[in-house]
């Protein structure tokens, strides 16, 4: 049981959060193992096996780097929740873990926005957009995304901190209770600039893409039909990522933060939204496992599947029994994933 203090210290609500000590270690452990395998494989294939990088590959490699940086912080969170929300690693690592979470979250959103704009230009303006769809511009777009994320998250280094609750050290999810009033406008601005505006751009791009693709349904060219099908699957995957992982997280986080600041005396309401938010918080990390699936839509599916089946050094996983146990499952999973997502994989 934890106590949620109001920003003025006038209200004190006991929150029953025993579910965290089971749900969060299990979720983070699963995301860590699966995300490490998928992103590591995608990064290795892109860097060591791919001959020429496309614009999409540049964005996806940056996505993999963002995912891996976050995944490497998950063991600290797993230990924290196994110890029943006790943080033994000091304030510096607390700040780093919170920074990496949001850097992965909003870095992924901006990079997915770049991919969406790139595909929108390719589908709707294939000829006129050629000067803008170059690897140099893709690298510049990825670099700009990282700079924007860094600037957005600078206040996190100030707000993220450790504190004492029930005589044990915790790493606050957002900030300490006494700083919630000043954190609230920053949190809302971060949600708007890091999620809402990019999400609207993606919706506009994909709406125009779908309109353009449906106008071409009379084209019987097999190549054009395959390209349209791949574009539609990409749209569905990205929209599914936002619908399942990102949108519920931001909605529950915003409402929970509002209640913590302005309705903290309503303990029942606080308990309800605390539960919803803290269930969706680990689920948003699933984007680290979903992002690599975009690789199978980038036109390199056959080579990726062949390399994963034949040349990826699975033997290096022997020191890690859990990772090794997942290898046969992954080998069975990858071919149907390829077939589902790109329709271009064949059996060996």
Automatic annotation (TrEMBL):
<feature type="transmembrane region" description="Helical">
    <location>
        <begin position="183"/>
        <end position="206"/>
    </location>
</feature>
<dbReference type="GO" id="GO:0005886">
    <property type="term" value="C:plasma membrane"/>
</dbReference>
<feature type="transmembrane region" description="Helical">
    <location>
        <begin position="137"/>
        <end position="154"/>
    </location>
</feature>
<keyword id="KW-1003">Cell membrane</keyword>
<feature type="transmembrane region" description="Helical">
    <location>
        <begin position="235"/>
        <end position="259"/>
    </location>
</feature>
<keyword id="KW-0472">Membrane</keyword>
<dbReference type="GO" id="GO:0004930">
    <property type="term" value="F:G protein-coupled receptor activity"/>
</dbReference>
<keyword id="KW-0297">G-protein coupled receptor</keyword>
<keyword id="KW-1015">Disulfide bond</keyword>
<feature type="transmembrane region" description="Helical">
    <location>
        <begin position="22"/>
        <end position="45"/>
    </location>
</feature>
<keyword id="KW-0807">Transducer</keyword>
<keyword id="KW-0812">Transmembrane</keyword>
<dbReference type="Pfam" id="PF00001">
    <property type="entry name" value="7tm_1"/>
</dbReference>
<feature type="transmembrane region" description="Helical">
    <location>
        <begin position="57"/>
        <end position="83"/>
    </location>
</feature>
<keyword id="KW-1133">Transmembrane helix</keyword>
<keyword id="KW-0675">Receptor</keyword>
<comment type="similarity">
    <text>Belongs to the G-protein coupled receptor 1 family.</text>
</comment>
<feature type="transmembrane region" description="Helical">
    <location>
        <begin position="103"/>
        <end position="125"/>
    </location>
</feature>
<dbReference type="InterPro" id="IPR000276">
    <property type="entry name" value="GPCR_Rhodpsn"/>
</dbReference>
<protein>
    <recommendedName>
        <fullName>G-protein coupled receptors family 1 profile domain-containing protein</fullName>
    </recommendedName>
</protein>
<dbReference type="InterPro" id="IPR017452">
    <property type="entry name" value="GPCR_Rhodpsn_7TM"/>
</dbReference>
<feature type="domain" description="G-protein coupled receptors family 1 profile">
    <location>
        <begin position="29"/>
        <end position="295"/>
    </location>
</feature>
């Amino acid at each position: 049981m934890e106590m949620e203090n109001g920003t003025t210290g006038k209200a004190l609500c006991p929150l029953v959060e025993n579910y965290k000590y089971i749900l969060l270690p299990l979720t983070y452990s699963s995301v860590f193992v699966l995300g490490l395998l998928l992103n590591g494989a995608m990064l290795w294939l892109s860097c060591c096996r791919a001959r020429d990088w496309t614009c999409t590959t540049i964005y996806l490699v940056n996505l993999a780097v963002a995912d891996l940086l976050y995944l490497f912080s998950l063991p600290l969170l797993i230990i924290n929740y196994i110890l029943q929300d006790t943080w033994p690693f000091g304030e510096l690592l607390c700040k780093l873990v919170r920074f990496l979470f949001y850097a992965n979250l909003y870095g992924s959103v901006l990079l997915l926005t770049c991919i969406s704009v790139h595909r929108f230009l390719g589908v709707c303006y294939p000829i006129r957009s050629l000067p803008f769809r170059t690897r140099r511009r893709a690298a510049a777009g990825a670099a700009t995304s990282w700079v924007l994320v860094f600037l957005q998250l600078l206040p996190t280094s100030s707000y993220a901190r450790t504190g004492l609750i029930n005589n044990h050290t915790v790493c606050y999810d957002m900030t300490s209770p006494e700083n919630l009033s000043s954190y609230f406008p920053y949190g809302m601005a971060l949600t708007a600039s890091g999620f809402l505006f990019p999400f609207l751009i993606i919706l506009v791009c994909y709406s125009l893409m779908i309109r353009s693709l449906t106008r071409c349904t009379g084209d019987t060219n097999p190549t054009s039909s395959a390209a349209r099908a791949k574009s539609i699957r990409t749209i569905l995957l990205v929209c599914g990522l936002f619908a399942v992982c990102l949108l519920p997280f931001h909605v529950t986080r915003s409402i929970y933060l509002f209640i913590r600041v302005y309705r903290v005396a309503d303990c029942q309401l606080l308990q309800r939204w605390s539960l919803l938010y803290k269930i969706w918080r680990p689920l948003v990390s699933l984007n680290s496992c979903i992002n690599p699936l975009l690789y199978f839509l980038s036109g390199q599916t056959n080579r990726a599947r062949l390399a994963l089946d034949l040349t990826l050094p699975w033997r290096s996983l022997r020191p890690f029994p859990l990772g090794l146990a997942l290898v046969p499952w992954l080998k069975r999973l990858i071919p149907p994933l390829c077939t589902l997502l790109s329709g271009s994989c064949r059996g060996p």
